[in-house]
Amino acid sequence: MRSHQLITAISLILLCGSPLASAARKAPAAPSNLTVKALGVNSFQFKWKDNSNNETGWEIRASLPGGTPLRFALFPAPNATSYILTTNDLPGKELLFQMAAYTGVIGTETLSKPTPVVKVRALSPSKFATPTMLLAKPLDDGRIQLSWKDNSTSESGYQIESRIGKKKWKPLASLGPGIKFKVVATGFSPGQTRSFRVRAFKPNKTTGYSNVATATTKPFRAPSSLVVTALPEGAFSFKWKDLSAVESGYEMESKVGSESFESLGTVPADSTGSDPIPGFSMGADHQFRLRAFRLVGTVKTYSGYSNVVSIRSTPLNAPAGLVGTAASDTSVNLTWIDKSSSESAYEILYREVGTTQFSSAFANANAQSFTVSNLASATTYEFRVSAVVNGFFGNRIATSANQSAQVRTKEGFLGNFSPPIVAGASFLYPIQITLPSGLTGLTVTGLPDGLTFNPGNRTITGILATAGTYTATMIATFSDGSTSIRTLTLKSVLASPAIVQAFAAVSAPVATSKVVSLTGKFSDPDTASAARVTTSLGTFDIILFPNSTPQTVDNFLDYTDAGEYDDSFFHRSPANFVLQGGGYKHTPANGFTKVNKFDRVLPNEPGLSNVRGTVAMAKIGGLPDSATSEWFVNVNDNSGTPPLGLDYQNSGFTVFGRVPTAGMIVVDQIHDLPINNYTVAIGADSQFLESVPVNAPTAPAVLDPAQLVKITSVGPAPILTYQVTSLDPAIATASLTGTDISITGVATGSTTIEVTATDLDRLTVTQNIAVTVP
């Protein structure tokens, strides 16, 4: 802000005789190092040091010799350090000046102490003449430097005009008095030729124009001296020289190896470097180049490129100080020092010493520890840990060097912990220990019915009573105080039907029939009894487990014998969980009714695992001994882990049967139907049914009973079915009626009747009957 107050040649006219009253506030610090230079007979250049951090502006005080400098002007310009003061013409007059800082609103401002008085004499004589010797010099691609001879001492300033070619002259800038060289005009386009002229002005008066000077800006200039510095873990920093005055910004390009250059993005105009930029491929050869760009409207133009810099990025920092410690007979704890700030994860490779194939695991970024589990007991492993950086879709971008360690797991168990077992057949499992001489204790708990543990010879023997999946816990303690705990999984394999008694040879004269009974000839070791469930979408069998869950099987058969499951329906089928029935019925005559429940409430008989295909009793939450009529088929492995798995919830759910593989096709078909929640009327009451499967393309909002999956009947299923075949029907034929085989002689000779028994798992066994026709 410039004051237009003038000092007369006779006396000093002041704005006020003394400072106005100021509000109570902290006074700013006084300026210092004040200098004043006369630029003419009516203008003075002030310069000073700003020592305050709270000023609003500055007070200029002035007087003629013999007077005391008083306020001449206030100008609000915080942090300013120079000012041009304009007065009326005072050729050759000596003036006294002071300055002070002020804070607050004018009229209530608070002032600092003033500077010492500075004396200065205005120039003489008073002249106002046309500037001459105008020169124009291009500095770069957007700036032209102007200079001229100042022939005035009383000007208020200078007006600069410019034009392109023969176009009309246009004002370019107005400048203060006393300026005569190194005036920089900016904002021109690269390679543009312009003409300039200048004249002096003061109130209501101007001089003539100077001579015309012409200059052409330089072409759009590319940056130079690009310097790239490799920083840790694939980062780079960039520096360059800005040689252009008209750029809108800079664009950096890079490439790796023999790839093409690609843009990294842009930085603002006047930039000469960048902050560290991470994320480049690590340990790779890169090339970088830079160019300026400018926008004229929506059109972008580019300068040439800077020098190209070839440089190799730094690798990913590797972890340090890897230490491995045996945590148990099956696990090792690893710790390391995280030296990277860029990793996506840590990769752990491990293998048994002496082998070639590594297994792998991953720890999260910034991790400094990891436990490797499922290892073999008393075995030395090699471990390697490295930092990795992953890109899109998990693609590996960088991997650091490895840290390695070797660790031996503690003593424990050896062998197969999921040995095959057949229900109804003898079983022998020797428990193997890595260091028998160091063993101080060995226990086995949770064995199913029929199996026992002999601590003397460390074996598990017996005959599994019921097919199924069981888990037992083996605990070994050693003299060094360590303990090994292993789970022994006993999942019975399916047993084929067995031959109990061979058939006697048969003599059947021509046209004579002999009857041979199948009774006592075959058996199915893993099936004691079975039930057949007939539904509106197919039939499936349930192989029952009376030896393991006698009360539950008896209860189920009681409901079956009473016909309580006839006309019932599957009322619950939550996705990927179970298919449940045994709770509700529907007939057109009676509508919805509940399955009639017996007075008894079943005691829980857990033990068999709720794996896929098993059948278990439903019960009330929090009441282990509350099962009545409802049962469900596990369509997934719902055994789980404590406390959520069905083997553990509510003291475990009682598995009392299983559906063979062929029957699960029907179960899955029903379970895959659409489901919805419905409220149905049962007598005068309402019953909410959740996840009801309906035989329709989509589950309707209102339940149509015709779309329910009905259980039409549940009854006994034959354990074995039979087929008989005569290998030479021209000698003798055979037919089957119930469990009797009728063999009829056709012609004299000998042949064989083949008898095949098939169990519910569709496994078979065959034995022959020798036949002679006399």
Count helical runs. Answer: 2
- Global geometry: elongated
Q: List segments where confidence is low: pLDDT < 50 over at least 5 consecutive residues.
A: 1-23
**Widest beta sheet: strand line-up:** 47-56-45-46-53-51-52-48
- The termini sit apart by 140 Å
**Which structural class is indicated by helix and strand composition?**
mainly beta
Q: Mind telling me the C-alpha Rg?
A: 51 Å
Mean pLDDT: 91
Described by strand count, sense and barrel closure, the largest sheet is: 8 strands, antiparallel
As a percent range, the share of strand residues is: over 45%
Indicate the percent of residues in helices. under 10%
Record field, number of beta strands: 61
Can you walk through the features of this model?
With 774 residues, the chain is mainly beta. Helices cover 3% and strands 47% of the residues. The chain is built from two helices and 61 strands. The protein has an eight-stranded antiparallel β-sheet with strand order 47-56-45-46-53-51-52-48. Strands 3, 4, 6, 7 and 8 form a five-stranded antiparallel β-sheet that branches. A hairpin with a 5-residue loop joins strand 29 and strand 30. The longest helix has 12 residues, at 550-561. It is elongated and about 160 Å long. The termini are far apart. Mean pLDDT is 91; it is low at 1-23.
Q: How are the elements arranged and paired?
A:
Elements: E1 32-38, E2 43-49, E3 57-63, E4 70-75, E5 82-86, E6 94-103, E7 110-111, E8 118-121, E9 132-138, E10 144-149, E11 157-163, E12 170-175, E13 183-185, E14 193-202, E15 205-206, E16 213-216, E17 224-231, E18 235-241, E19 249-256, E20 262-268, E21 285-296, E22 299-305, E23 309-312, E24 320-326, E25 332-337, E26 345-352, E27 359-364, E28 369-372, E29 380-390, E30 396-399, E31 403-408, E32 413-414, E33 421-422, E34 426-430, E35 432-433, E36 439-445, E37 451-454, E38 459-463, E39 469-478, E40 483-493, E41 498-499, E42 506-507, E43 513-517, E44 522-523, E45 529-535, E46 538-544, H1 550-561, E47 568-569, E48 578-581, E49 584-587, E50 591-594, E51 614-617, E52 631-634, E53 655-658, H2 661-671, E54 675-682, E55 685-693, E56 710-716, E57 720-726, E58 732-737, E59 740-745, E60 749-759, E61 764-773
Parallel strand pairs: 33-40, 42-61
Antiparallel strand pairs: 1-2, 2-5, 3-4, 3-6, 6-7, 6-8, 9-10, 10-13, 11-12, 11-14, 14-15, 14-16, 17-18, 19-20, 19-21, 21-22, 21-23, 24-25, 25-28, 26-27, 26-29, 29-30, 29-31, 32-35, 34-38, 36-39, 37-38, 39-40, 41-44, 43-59, 45-46, 45-56, 46-53, 47-56, 48-52, 49-50, 51-52, 51-53, 54-55, 57-60, ...
